[in-house]
Amino acid sequence: MPDRQIFQNKDLVLKVSANYDLGRFDPNKYEPFLDALCGDREYQKEAIRETVRYFLGGEYRNLKELAEKNYREGNPKLREKYSSFEDFTAALQLPDKFSCSLDHATATGKSYVMYGVARIMLAEGAVDRVLVLCPSNTIEAGLTEKFRILSAKRELKDLLPPDSKISNPGIVNASRTIQTGDICIENIHATYIRTKSAIEDSLLGKGERTLVLNDEAHHLMNPSDTALKKWKEFLLDARYGFQFIVNLSGTCYIGDDYFTDVIHRFSLRESIEKRFIKTIRYVAEDSSKNEDEKFQKIYDNHVENGTVKYHEVKPITILVTRNIAACKRLTEKLIAFLARKERDGKNRAANKVLIVTSANEHKGNIPLLQRVDDQENPIEWITSVSMLSEGWDVKNVFQIVPHEEKAFNSKLLIAQVLGRGLRIPEVYRGEQPVVTVFNHAKWSGSIKHLVDEVLEIEKRVHSYPIIKKDDYHFDIYNIDYRRVEKKGDHPQEDQYKILDKGYINYSSQAEVLEKITRYIMTHSGEESEKTTPIELKLYSIEEVTQDVFNHLYIFDQEAGTAYSRKFPREKIEEIIRKSLEDIKDTTARVSEENRNKTLAAFGVIRRKGAKSLRLEIEARNLAKINTREIKKNSLGVGELRRDSTIFWDDYTLNEGALADRKLMKELEGDETLPRSALIKVDNKYNFKTSLNLVLAASKPEREFIRELVKEQTALKVDAWIKSLDVGFYSIEYSWRKGEHSKQGSFNPDFFIKMGSDIVVVEIKVDGDASEENKAKLRYSRDHFNRVNELQKEQRYYFKFLSPSSYELFFKRLREKEYENFKSELEARLEDP
């Protein structure tokens, strides 16, 4: 059985029936109108036809009915993805509305589709007015202009059927009352700013006769701020009663999941093939060591775009970050790099960079996007955040740089970022320009999946409480702690000799190094390499000498030492020169790496009586939790091939979620799995846990559970539960790692109920007597001693176990002599 389910987006599109009741609706009479509106763009016509046939064909009453017909009759892939129709329904955003989504890639003319659907619905008299909602003023202005241009075309009006109910709609916004026959285009914010908008006064109680078109609807499904979160609330507001809702987007993803209500799509790949948008080249392999090297490669691509590839326009590079703070930091670094690289001053460099975010301080930059393509405009670089609600029609983008993983860690964000660079400048229409994505190599697979429209879902097994004939739930006491800062001193250490050799082990260095980046074209899969000469940062001997001396001098002033006298500038310089001689370097310059080695060599001195702060925890209130409260845990099916195990019994196949039961039956019949992957407890009365199944992540855990479900042990145990790695029952601890104090928390692996006693077990491999585990033992013993002091209802015993002590532990457990039991590992952890 494959460990993952793989779907293509096209597999998940809902098919609208080709049937329509001519007594209710005749779509054929709109064909001349569609030809005039869309020209030869057949995909736009298909989208309009599908949408109005869904609304008016008489086959459905809402999205739920469309989804059910596809699930039960038409689409086996939906049944593969969702184990029940109920699961599928739960994934629908607006199941009780006449709702749907259209997935059309960036720059493919979504506005024509919106306009076509609006005009036909008005002409048919199915609605009296249309409300077009979008996430920003910029998009509102763009749509208003496009709709007014289309409405001014007399031939479109003339080609509508003579009996059209509304054939000449007004294009308005919500600054005045929305009349019958109006198409109102508004920013979503106007739906809740009552003082400036006529939406509430115009549409209350009229939703059934209003068509709502949501542009850039991924913002509706993935709201990034409070205003956008109100978008869906507005659509569901019973005071309006909206029924006809169409969502349009070129990035129909909720995170990595594809929209569940798409009825038509024109994909990114189709758009590339039709040359409506640029093709994409992305990084498959890159050897950059640091940010400066990446900047140099990005700069080299940028210069090549302007001087060689696309010199008829002014190419632009955009850099994308995860949030506003990161964007501001990146902008400062980019300006500093450009000033250094072009030797043209910081102010001139800053004039070439435009930062675009939703922050108030950057609001004035958003209108400037309309002019950045102009040759005389100085802007060549744009920094931005990944989820930007503003419209983006810049055509001269030829390089995109997702600067951090969080700016590029879902299909939605990847599609959003790529969409900024896909439009083709007019001068290159009919050609296929390339936009380069200078991504981290590890994201290359994500880009490929996006363009190939692949949805890959890892199959996962879930563990959670279920109802059993015998109640195996029980209470556990924990303590609510608070953190307290404690001041302390590091013990003073004697001064020691440094640099006895008289030189430092430098590595070989160079001023310029040629580095290779390997790229892949998304459409063809063709690979290419590009060599970029990287200028390595070098420092003069005098600069490094002064840096080291300053370091020692400041240290002496603070610590009362005399290192700057022991190592005057002349001595430091002599050491650096000898270090360069050792690698046969005659440049009298020091690389960044060797400079850092030099500073490190002189930086090993400990401060005298250095003060430190450490966090300690203090007990506050006793808290009772029940095993019913444990959250769902899961395990990827692929992990079963790598030493993980599922313990299960008859309850597993009869109780719990249908999807989990179905997957377990598939796993039971999978002969390719290791024998250790599935272990059935034949007698369900020996499986004394409240969980539907238990997941063991390693061999030590697996062998412990084997002992726990043996009949002779089960007879003596009341109940047990395997805890989670995170959450449920956490114990904080602190330990020293090298010179630093570390804070952490862990969850003990097992809680075993023996009458009024609770035996708590933490599992480790044999011999794992690390300092961290010693700390866990100390803090856990202290914790459970406090629990025992604060209540008398239960008695807790904490045990650190490894496989070598299992047999003796379970012997003592069955004999109820576990109180003073100490494993081999626990004894080693007690050693200083």
Automatic annotation (TrEMBL):
Gene Ontology molecular function terms on file: ATP binding; DNA binding; hydrolase activity
One cellular-component annotation, GO: cytosol
Signal peptide: none
Start and end residues of each Helicase/UvrB N-terminal domain: 41-252
Protein name: Type III restriction enzyme, res subunit
